[in-house]
């Protein structure tokens, strides 16, 4: 299980000329064994998106004690803001991406007039007051099995735009200095930019520019042009991945 | 009311050759009016210590609408991680420091083996497992009116080492990836380095190196040398200041 601050990275995915989370972990693995295959992750997060409970796997040549491997990787990744926070052995046919039965995302909106200081880079700041109840009403309209073409990046490589969204919730968190909205989404899998497209659209509802019914109209349009603005990446966290055969449970 | 990330600053207090929170706010004020006096704050936090509910005041020459002043200052402070999150007019004899009847501090310990990523710079990371109950027992022994010489920096300029600590609590917060200990302290006023000296000492108790009784022995020694290590600044937050005549209530 991997935690990272997405800020300094071009995203999860390895790129030959830019720092990536995958590249950081693979460089540390290369200090331990040679000629390892690429690692695979449950969610290939975009540039700036954070990991809280990202999961990846690697086929090691040697038998490693999970804790030893974790500590060695964390040592070699210093000072990059990437840490292995849990490790476990898995069956040969277990795959971090293909075995996953659920992905969970959190999107944090700092809803206040004053600029973010301590949360800078970790929230999307929206200055105008947002109506969380309206946003929750809009979010509920997205739950279910739909053609999500409207909320899918034109770069999306998924075979089908039909997905089942299992949950979309809006929680208001009053903090010491301001107010955060936490938007949580849960599904077996997501399309590229789906969560950020949801959030940008729901922000339009919260600000009063859209009605909750407009969300249904946008969904039914099955047209990328019907989507609200795409929310920026720095508020988004991959918080967890579910597996029927969860290597971290028990 | 001021929020700031203490990381890039040499502390609250203005220094002619280093960035400070006070200097950042005063530079923004200087864009609005000339020849202003220095601003005064409830707590002069050290280098690296964060502000969540710091309070400062300034004698302005013109009559400002609180919100206009706040927005103008926030505009001029960009991109420094300092924000005015609330502003209010006060009586001429009201003083952010001398009128304060209570200061509240939070200290965050990230208690896990893997290095902090998303929380880097905002927590003190302790790798060995800490016993929160033992720490709470140790903390309770500090509550009351005592000569706190043991927990006072040798640089402290307070007239007397006798202070009354009103509360010292330890809360365990299970987060998505790890465990945080939140230590909260409340008093009319604190000595220099008092909270960090408390936390460093309580960490010794949590790790098993000290017993809770050793905290009482250290307190009663009234000797700086009897103190545990001083905890690092990045876990410390000035979270709030209390006033009998609170400008922000109502």
UniProtKB/TrEMBL annotation, chains A, B:
Protein family (similarity comment): Belongs to the tRNA pseudouridine synthase TruA family.
Superkingdom per UniProt: Bacteria
Catalysed reaction, written as an equation: uridine(38/39/40) in tRNA = pseudouridine(38/39/40) in tRNA
Keyword field: Isomerase, tRNA processing
Native species: Roseivivax marinus
Organism ancestry: Bacteria, Pseudomonadati, Pseudomonadota, Alphaproteobacteria, Rhodobacterales
EC numbers, comma separated: 5.4.99.12
SUPFAM superfamilies listed in its UniProt record: Pseudouridine synthase (SSF55120)
Function: Formation of pseudouridine at positions 38, 39 and 40 in the anticodon stem and loop of transfer RNAs.
TM stretches of this protein: none
Name of the featured protein: tRNA pseudouridine synthase A
């Amino acid at each position: 299980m991997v935690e990272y601050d997405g800020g300094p990275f071009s995203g999860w995915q390895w790129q030959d000329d830019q720092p990536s989370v995958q590249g950081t972990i693979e460089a540390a693995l290369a200090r331990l064994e040679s000629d390892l295959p690429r690692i695979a992750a449950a969610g290939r997060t975009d540039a700036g998106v954070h990991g809280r409970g990202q999961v990846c796997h690697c086929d090691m040549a040697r038998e490693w004690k999970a804790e030893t491997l974790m500590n060695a990787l964390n040592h070699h990744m210093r000072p990059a803001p990437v840490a292995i926070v849990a490790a476990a052995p898995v069956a040969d046919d277990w795959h971090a991406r293909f075995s996953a039965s659920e992905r969970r995302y959190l999107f944090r909106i700092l809803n206040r007039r004053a600029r973010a200081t301590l949360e800078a880079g970790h929230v999307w700041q929206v200055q105008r007051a947002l109506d969380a109840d309206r946003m929750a009403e809009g979010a509920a309209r997205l739950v279910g099995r739909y053609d999500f073409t409207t909320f899918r990046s034109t770069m999306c490589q998924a075979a089908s735009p039909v997905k089942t969204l299992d949950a979309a919730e809006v929680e208001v968190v009053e903090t010491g200095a301001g107010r955060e909205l936490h938007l949580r989404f849960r599904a077996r899998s997501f399309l590229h930019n789906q969560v950020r497209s949801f959030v940008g659209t729901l922000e339009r509802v919260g600000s009063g520019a859209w009605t909750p019914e407009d969300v249904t109209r946008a969904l039914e349009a099955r047209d990328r042009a019907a989507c609200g603005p795409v929310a920026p990446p720095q508020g988004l966290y991959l918080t967890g991945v579910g597996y029927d055969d969860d290597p971290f449970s028990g």
